[in-house]
Amino acid sequence: MEELIQLTPLCSGALHQQYLRCGKSNCRCHDKKSPQPHGPYFLWARRINGKQVNRTLRPGAKLDRVREGILNYERMQRLLDQLVRAEESRILEDEEFTKDPGKKNFKPRSRRH
Ligand SMILES: [Zn+2]
């Protein structure tokens, strides 16, 4: 659990690298022979209450934090999975412990139709 709390920064979603064309038709990004689109920009897409929310980020400290946050989010999910598996097996062990040996001869009742 301590490991979970130490995961910061924490960001959901994913980053997509993009190169964009601007509105100026005489710009290098519209060059017919060798177009040089602007970028890279990074689209940070995440879901909030079921709705996709996009933010465009340029390379820099903020982008680095988001990237690190997404990696931490994946780590958090793995840790959470481990925690859930451990809790589940603990429940199953408890069940094993309280199991009535007489139940081995238990016959299932005929199901109603
Ligand atoms: Zn341009």
What would your notes on this structure say?
The protein is of the alpha+beta class. It has one domain. It is 37% helix and 22% strand. The protein is built from 2 helices and 3 strands. The protein has a 3-stranded antiparallel β-sheet, with helices on one face. A hairpin with a 2-residue loop joins strand 2 (38-48) and strand 3 (51-57). The chain is elongated, with a radius of gyration of 26 Å. The mean pLDDT is 88. Zinc ion binds at residues 21-22, 24, 27, 29, 38.
Question: What is this structure, in a nutshell?
Answer:
The chain contains two helices and three strands. It has helices at 2-5, 61-98; strands spanning 14-20, 38-48, 51-57.
Observed structural traits:
113 residues, elongated
